[in-house]
Amino acid sequence: MARVAAYTEAMNEIGRGLIGLGLLLVAVGVAVLLLGRTGLPLGRLPGDLSWRGKHTTVYFPLGTSILLSVVLSLVFYILSRLHR
Prior knowledge:
Elements: H1 2-38, E1 49-52, E2 57-60, H2 62-83
Antiparallel strand pairs: 1-2
């Protein structure tokens, strides 16, 4: 009986985690859609690399990745300071 309860609790935790992850993905998707409509040059910053070959295109948004990393680091730092 204890095994069934532990299994049920574990499955409930996994379910909650998947729902949370899904909501996070939806929020990120909405944010990307809204940022695309604002006209910000994300993806076209200096440092974003692109190479076009005859049949392929390779794109690596290095500048955008660095900018997003700095902004998210600041946001999480501020949130952690407010949480204390």
